[in-house]
TrEMBL record:
SUPFAM superfamilies: S-adenosyl-L-methionine-dependent methyltransferases. It comes from Lingula anatina. It comes from the Eukaryota. This is Methyltransferase-like protein 27 isoform X2. InterPro entries: Methyltransf_25, SAM-dependent_MTases_sf. Residues 67-138 form the Methyltransferase domain.
Amino acid sequence: MAKIEEKMLPIYVELNRPGITTEEVEDVYARWAKDYDKDMADLNYFVSSNNAYVVEKALKHKNDALILDAACGTGLVGVELTKRGFHNLHGLDRSTAMLEQAKQKGIYKKMMCSSLGPNRLGIPDDTYDAVVMSGAVGSGHVDGSCLEEFIRIGGYVVMDTTLKFFHRVSYQGKSWDEIIDNHIMAGRWVTVTRRLVEQSFNSLDGIQYAFRVK
């Protein structure tokens, strides 16, 4: 695949500054929400469709499946899921501005404003057939502390990371992949796919993950 140059929109550079805090991230998204979809198209954001495809394969076209779009942002993954016939979608994000943009799309039956982390979500065990999360791992965003909750509430877990950003995150001294592997070794989930995706976002390579909760 021919290499293309990473685009550098000013707000994108601001968001992905190493060491950015959670509060600073929320401020960026509040300012970016209205232009986010347009800018993501300019940045060649393919991970939404990639993850929706993996969900479709995992659920074997079970279109009435209940799916949580975690860190749903403006709903780009939800749009891709609806294109594949899924209509029973919930969206969760900590940014009220991004959720407002997602609400306008009319694709989620339920929307929740909450952070993802070690905190217990107000969701019963085994609620979802699948949990999907796209483009959320990075400084000031999401780290591996959220994975235990995904296992508690979901049947399949489909996620992606961008290699440039996920190396910056850790939780209690453990990297993203170390936490994933700890859950595998503890028998909490099994790997469905774990693969490199070239130029998955803005010319940057990423990793796509799918796990089946045991």
